Give the backbone structure.
Amino acid sequence: MKKEIKARWTILTFLLMIISMGIAVAVLETSPHVPLVLGTVIAAIVAMKHGFKWREVEEMMYKGIKLALPAIVIIMLVGFTIGAWVGGGVVATMIFYGLKLISPAWFLVTILFLCAIVSLAIGSSWSTMATVGVAGMGIGLSMGIPAAMIAGAVISGAYFGDKMSPLSDTTNLASGLTGTALFDHIRHMLYTTVPGLIIAVVVFGFLGRKFSDVSMQSESITTTLQVLQDTFYISPWLLIVPVAVIVMVAKKVPAIPALVIGIILGFLLQITVQGGSVKFALETLQSGFVLASGNELVDQLFNQGGLDGMMNTVSMTIVAMTFGGILEYSGMLKSLLQVILKFAKSTGSLVTSTIAACLFTNGTCSEQYISIVVPSRMFSNAYRQRGLHSKNLSRALEDGGTLTSVFFPWNTCGVFIFATLGVSAFEYAPYAILNFVVPIISIIYAYTGFAIVKMTPEEIEEANKQAAEEEKLNPTVV
């Protein structure tokens, strides 16, 4: 006989996984996959202890994975896109013209915009930080700019693009899990993210004034630009590809066709413009672009992309969703949600609770994806019951989950940034302007009602119908 799972069992499950996650990620510096699997095992044991049979637990995991399948398809297409755009010289062209704009007084603002543009184009904050960010750290340090400031500008720009790009895995994950159309989700995030970017630009513009008298050390820039010209055919005409994708986004073209067109254009550019063979172009789509220019920085910039490069993200999503599936369909999240929702008496407190839950998950589970996956399932019905459109939830998940992951040194994002940029979370946190301003803006909007979208009567009826169908299939769904 099935028994209701009390909140204390859910908390115990989280606690045990958090401990294993902390040991694996922060102490042993290994992948968070195994701790997530351990969390799934613990959740399964708790569910079976309360009367669920193994066959039912197994079905819960499959249901969880099914929720993420649309996002997984997009993530794989993103791998193809990055490889095609790197091989086609699109990324090289963006970096080439971006580096030409750098000056000491405006360095922080320039690197902020450059990272934002590149991340927006490729949909990856990590790839941007590992490429443009690394180059920016070297150039900025040669100007005498503090490392923490440079890292803050790089992170702010990289996460703006990661958050707003239709190629981003977190963007697709948040929209997919909440049932929000991808481009509706992106447009709704403009309300919080663009003001956050403007504030960051103003702050970094002010900070950069003190470096206006610094003499530009341009040797590293000159070398990089020369290697780019020797390796790729650089032309502003290549920027037509990202522009085409942006236009398709504006015209509300579905994500998959837009991505496929971007992939095809990049693939053709690699063959016709860059002079690559068909075989090499196909290998780029599968394994990523391979470059041996002899310049370590440029090689690091461009050896990326491909389907294989996204498999770690795909496996992380699958493992996280097995954990989330058991938590949801066993009713464990329902018990925890009932405790949390006691503090959500209004729309403002509901959005605040969502962001707080994302922040808490980032700080305890040490993984950005979990901070989107788990709260998305916890709060979806609460938003529906209040008549709030799902894009309010998807935006809150990104404002609170995607952006705050950088503030915890033991989170995979914090660990990656320290290893890549050489600056700890405690040092760059005050300068990661966009990352802490946007959640604050989101909470202010929620309490004032600005940019909070209600569902139409027709949408409410459809949402209630879907919820009723889910309830019939599984009465324990939150």
